[in-house]
Amino acid sequence: DTAVSQTPKYLVTQMGNDKSIKCEQNLGHDTMYWYKQDSKKFLKIMFSYNNKELIINETVPNRFSPKSPDKAHLNLHINSLELGDSAVYFCASSLDGNEQFFGPGTRLTVL
Amino acid sequence: GEDVEQSLFLSVREGDSSVINCTYTDSSSTYLYWYKQEPGAGLQLLTYIFSNMDMKQDQRLTVLLNKKDKHLSLRIADTQTGDSAIYFCAETPRGYQKVTFGIGTKLQVIP
Questions:
Q1: Distance of alpha carbon B33 from the chain centroid
Q2: Is the Cβ pair B101, A43 closer than 8 Å?
Q3: Which residues of A9-19 are buried (b: 16+ CB within 10 A; e: fewer)?
Q4: Residue A71: CB partners within 8 Å, gap ≥ 6?
Q5: Nearest by CB to A41, which of B86, B92, B99?
Q6: Tens digits of per-residue pLDDT, A44-93?
Q7: Is the CB of B29 inside 8 Å of chain A's CB atoms?
Q8: pLDDT band at B1 (very low <50, low <70, confident <90, very high)
Q9: pLDDT tens digits, residue range B73-88?
Q10: B104 and A CB contact within 8 Å
Q11: Closest to A92 in 3D by CA, of A18, A36, A15
């Protein structure tokens, strides 16, 4: 009955690799988001998709590419991982852009 | 979090009331939120208030909004050890479909 789920929960990888994080919501929401939370707990939006269309892209490096195969899924692909990419990445979804429901997070560690 | 400010840390004794404060800068914000993040977990929406309201109460939680001073507070009555977490203040500026978060206030409840 999980509303917003992410996989994997933990991801440890070497610098330079390419990795993906998956997100799925079963709430029937039209809008999905990716947030990055750094080591100081600062939470910042990266992307937002509405009905599979990109509506927010907040000065994120080109190495990050979101992909939305359908409105229930928003995956995040990261190329050429760097040390600074280490963070917790949260997916969220919303019906109207206001009340957002968050996934449990994916802790990415780049070595 | 450059538009939403919070103090970083608050310590209270179990059974006392906690008051977490937040200052936001966008006077046109439509929704203001309080999220809770327990260690190693995702964000949980605790409560939110519309910008045309002054107060909202939900069991032990009371949200006060002072629009003139752009000040939002969360009061937790009879604070319990389970309330120990990081509390994020957030806003949705009018016309945007994103939520801007504060830096988070870490609440420590002493038994």
A1: 6
A2: yes
A3: eebebeeeeeb
A4: A29, A30, A32, A49, A51, A52
A5: B86
A6: 889 888 887 887 777 788 999 999 999 899 999 999 999 999 999 999 99
A7: no
A8: very low
A9: 999 999 999 999 999 9
A10: yes
A11: A36
